[in-house]
Amino acid sequence: MVLHKFGEKLYSGLVSTMTSHLKDISKFIEAAQGGLFLEELNRKWADHNKALQMIRDILMYMDRTFIPSTHKTPVHELGLNLWRDNIIHSSKIQTRLLNTLLELVLRERNGEVINRGLMRNIIKMLMDLGSSVYQEDFEKPFLEVSADFYRVESQKFIECCDCADYLKKAERRLNEEMERVSQYLDAKSEVKITNVVEKEMIANHMLRLVHMENSGLVNMLLDDKYDDLGRMYNLFRRVPNGLSTIREVMTSHIRDTGKHLVTDPERLRDPVEFVQRLLDEKDKYDKIIGSAFNNDKTFQNALTSSFEYFINLNPRSPEFISLFVDDKLRKGLKGVSEEDVEIILDKVMMLFRYLQEKDVFEKYYKQHLAKRLLSGKTVSDDAERSLIVKLKTECGYQFTCKLEGMFTDMKTSQDTMQGFNSAHGADLGDGPTLAVTVLTTGSWPTQPSVTCNLPTEMLALCEKFRSYYLGTHTGRRLTWQTNMGTADIKATFAKGQKHELHVSTYQMCVLMLFNNADRLSYKEIEQATEIPASDLKRCMQSMACVKGKNVLRKEPMSKDIGEDDVFFVNDKFTNKLYKVKIGTVVAQKETEPEKQETRQRVEEDRKPQIEAAIVRIMKSRRVLDHNNLIAEVTKQLQSRFLANPVEIKKRIESLIERDFLERDNVDRKLYRYLA
Amino acid sequence: MRRSSTRKTASSKATSKELERIDQLFYSYANRSSNLIDPEGIEVLCSDVEVDHTDVRILMLAWKMKAEKQGYFTLEEWRRGLKALRTDTVSKLKKALPELEKEVRRPSNFVDFYSYAFRYCLTEEKQKSIDIESICELLDLVLGSQFQAQVDSFVEYLKTQNDYKVVNMDQWMGFFRFCNEISFPDLRNYDPELAWPLILDNFVEWRRAKHS
Question: Are residues B198 and A669, on separate chains, in Cβ contact within 8 Å?
Answer without folding.
Answer: no
